[in-house]
Amino acid sequence: MLFRSRGMAIVVVGGLLYATLMTLFIIPVMYDIFYKKQPHQVDVGENDIDEILDEAQEYMRENEFEL
């Protein structure tokens, strides 16, 4: 009876290790390989951050917001 439980324990531990490795390494790598997309170019404009702040203040003054 002792030998049967040892065999079952080895199978259970092996299954847990296999599932963990698949979840942490193999599945993410396969996902990256099959569903890789090209990165998008995002136009952030040529405005300087200081100019954007001035434009926001002008907009608030024009639309009667309190500063």
Radius of gyration, rounded? 30 Å
Distance between the termini: 82 Å
**Helical percent range?**
over 70%
User: Are there runs of 5+ residues with pLDDT below 50, and where?
Assistant: none
Largest sheet: number of strands, sense, barrel closure: none
Could you characterize the architecture of this molecule?
This protein is mainly α and 67 residues long. It contains two helices and no strands. It has helices at residues 2-34, 49-62. It is elongated and about 85 Å long.
Task: Compile the SSE list and pairings.
Layout: H1 2-34, H2 49-62
List keywords for this structure.
single chain, 70% helix, elongated, 67 residues, mainly alpha
A few lines on this structure:
Helix content is 70%, strand content 0%. The chain has helices at 2-34, 49-62.
